[in-house]
Amino acid sequence: MKISILTLFPEIFEKFVNTSVISHSLTKKINEIEIINFRNYSKDSHKRVDDYQYGGGPGMVIGLQAIIDCLNDIKTDDSYVVLLTPQGKKYNQQIAKRFSKLKHLILICGHYEGFDERIINFIDETISIGDYVLTGGEIPAMVVADSCMRLVANTINKNSLVCESFENGLLDYPVYTKPKNFKGYKVPEVLTSGNHQKINEWRKQHQILNTKKNRIDLYNKYLKSKKK
């Protein structure tokens, strides 16, 4: 898949695109990331993209001209445009799976007091990564890009995607490695027993316990799904 990220601070993404799994998938041309500074599309003599808001109030608002001209320049029939904003739909694994099937995902990073509200007429969806406010949309863009690209075939081992948090509505089970005993804290005996049926039963049980302990909201959804 191709992801285009529209931002005023492209330098923030330098490490992101050159690190670990993301870098590997880009090198192998499994995925493609395009970082675009939409300030370059500003027709203002000083390349300004923001202005004061109508009605008064603190902070500057990003206007429409530069960002819409940028979108018009890069969009194709396969493009899907997402605005990253605290007012958007809360992001989750199901949305990541849906986005990972797209040919071209465009992510728009906001800043300052956000965009002129009329931008909603030029996008396909709004997304928030959580109920808190950041200084800009660059970190959310990395979150969305990373979570999507790892799901694209051949990016990582497909077996690694089967047993992980949220795949069956539960959090993942606890995992351990050597040594078996670390300062009195021991690896559960069942995991070293070699009995794969017992190991699988233990893992499923602890997925449920882990979810109940840490995410009661997911646990309640899981219980409701089992009653259907």
Task: Describe, in plain words, how this protein is organized in 3D.
With 228 residues, the chain is of the alpha/beta class. 30% of the residues lie in helices and 19% in strands. It has six helices and nine strands; from the N terminus they run E-H-E-E-E-H-E-H-E-E-H-E-E-H-H. Strands 2-1-6-5-7 form a five-stranded parallel sheet, covered by helices on one side. It has a two-stranded antiparallel ribbon with strand order 3-4. Strand 8 (181-182) and strand 9 form a beta hairpin. It is elongated, with a radius of gyration of 22 Å.
The class by helix and strand makeup works out as alpha/beta
Oligomeric form: single chain
Low-confidence stretches: none
- Shape descriptor: elongated
Helix content: 25-40%
The total of beta strands comes to 9
The amount of beta strand, in percent, is 15-25%
What would you report as the Rg, rounded to the nearest angstrom? Answer: 22 Å
- One letter per element, helices H and strands E, the order comes to EHEEEHEHEEHEEHH
Count of discrete alpha- or pi-helical segments spanning 4 or more residues: 6
Average pLDDT rating: 94
Distance between the termini: 36 Å
**Sheet having the most strands:** 5 strands, parallel
Q: Going across the major beta sheet, what is the strand order?
A: 2-1-6-5-7
